[in-house]
Amino acid sequence: MVSSLSPAGPPSGKNPFGLDRVLLRLAILGVLIVVAFVALFSRLWFLQVLASENYTNLAQENRVRLVYSEPSRGRILDRNGDVLVQNRFSLAVTVDRQIVDTTRERYQTLVALSDLLKAPRKELRDALNDETVSPYKPVAVAYDVKPVAANTIGENGEDYPGVAVEGLEVREYPEGEIAAQLVGYVGEITGELLKVPYFRDARPRYRAGDIVGITGLERSYDRFLRGSPKIERVIVNSANNVIRSDVIQEEIPGRDLVLALDNRIQKLSEDALASGIQAARGSYQAPWGAAVVMDPNNGQVIASASFPTFDPAIL
Fold it and tell me: Mean pLDDT over residues 151-165, rounded?
């Protein structure tokens, strides 16, 4: 008996290429997974290595602040050493906004201080909300506080949380209106002044809230009189509370400005000018006048009088 042999074939219904397809798909999937991991690793490496400094700086900016304190301003003297402009200490009430940090607490503080100081609540509130003052330093809300009120705050601290009395410098003019037009006066720098090249290009830089010369010699010699501020680096936590403070630059007081002006002759010139203007008004229109006294030997200005004048202490 003869039988025929034929090659064995795959079982009925089976795909001879099924295993290859599965292996191919697994290989492709493996490649995709490897590519994904490589991309993820590359991104992490970029963030950790290449961009780490940038992100570190951003993190530092979020928790490190610089706080500036106004330096002591230089005096203005006449040729004989007589003081025309100087600084004096004023008892000022300050509020720490890191402690008094809720709307209710601020309202209660303003009511208490208004009653104690006999000051309008709106004025105190405007000073408390002054955005030109760093939030990490106490803000002055009242100056020239009477000693009785200062003692009340000091002796009853539990009734005035976050409130303190400090001695702050303010400008003083011992001669009153004498040479007022010449020496000028100071005030808080404005946004417009910050754009003026004299202030914009100065080093150290001027910042919103700085006290600067507005007119006269106070303005012309502001950089000379100004000095350099004390700078503190404070570190705050996520709640914006100060956890550490370091002084990175001590205050450098401003320099004194000595004039060729003679205070005695200045007074005589102003008195003579005022008398002359008043006498002239009997017959003529004489709304104002000016007088200058110079040394013929060297051209120095010994006196410079203007009428009418003003009291720089009230500006």
Answer: 94
